[in-house]
Amino acid sequence: MGEETAEDLRIGETAAQLRAMKQALGDSYWQDEEVHALQQTLRRLIGSYGAWGENRLPMHQRARAAARLESENADLLWPGRASGG
Fold it and tell me: What is the C-alpha to C-alpha distance for residues 75 and 58, in angstroms, rounded to an integer?
């Protein structure tokens, strides 16, 4: 437990890219097509993170982890979800 998987790393990398783009683009972040594509990627990664798999944690643990990831990255995925505010 506590070990990062390839899924964890991919989610972290995608979120980091979006954070850098959000800082660089400012208000135009929400209109940028590359941002939209990365947001879809992040949503898909988080969704599949919670999916059932034979070699995965029990579903209730995966669902909680996926909800945590979605919450932590809400400011990157939806306007008006600024972190800390």
Answer: 28
Distance CA 62, CA 53 (A): 10
Of 49, 55, 37, 59, nearest to 12 (Cα)? Answer: 49
Residue tagged 């070699």 (tokens): 55
Q: Whole-prediction pTM value?
A: 0.82
Residue of 18, 22, 8 whose CA lies nearest to 39: 18
Q: Please give the Cα distance from 51 to 59 (Å, whole number).
A: 7
- Angstrom distance (rounded) from CA 24 to CA 46: 24
Q: Write out pLDDT tens, residues 3-58.
A: 678 888 999 999 999 999 999 999 999 999 999 999 999 999 998 887 767 777 77
